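Is zinc ion placement plausible here? Inputs below.
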Amino acid sequence: MNLVEDLFEKARINRWCTRHCTTCGALDFRKEVGIIQDGDIVQFVEDLKNCDFDKCSTIVDWSEAISLLFHHPILLLRSQEIFDYWLERSDLSPNHCDHLYFYLIRHFRGISPKPWIDRLIGLAEDNWHPSIVESLLIGLRNGAVDYPNLLILVNTTYKDSPRITKLFLNGTLSKKLLGFKG
Ligand SMILES: [Zn+2]
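Reply from A.M.:
I modeled the complex. Tokens:
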């Protein structure tokens, strides 16, 4: 029994929109988040820290749904604590970390993304995961210069990945970042 997994299951069954959606504003889902009672919010935060992201990701836009949860003022207030807790969890998959960084953590002002970036770089070193490298590069843009280990990956392991080369061709990233071998 986990309140977050239950909420996601409810969203899946009812086919609620859980995106940052300009048509419906994910109203049904957000209404459900908004009515979490004061007495339940403490448990909800604990369940969010410990939720099984595999269970949550049975809905398509699970990572956007997670980010919508933080519209709740108490969750917003405790976001640093929740993100720090997730960072310590060794059971999160590379995919989970990628999505949490891309859809959530990089957008939070006042929270340093560096520990997440370092973890993601480590994951991309240990696993073939072009999506992580792509997320980092889109998140950092030319700020990637501050992460030499990432630039080494871009110029070695991932240098022929179409997802990565595209970012240089379409101008998301400066070609100056190429050729960095450490
Ligand atoms: Zn919608």
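Short version: The pocket of zinc ion is lined by residues 17, 19, 21, 23-24, 26 (CB under 6 Å).
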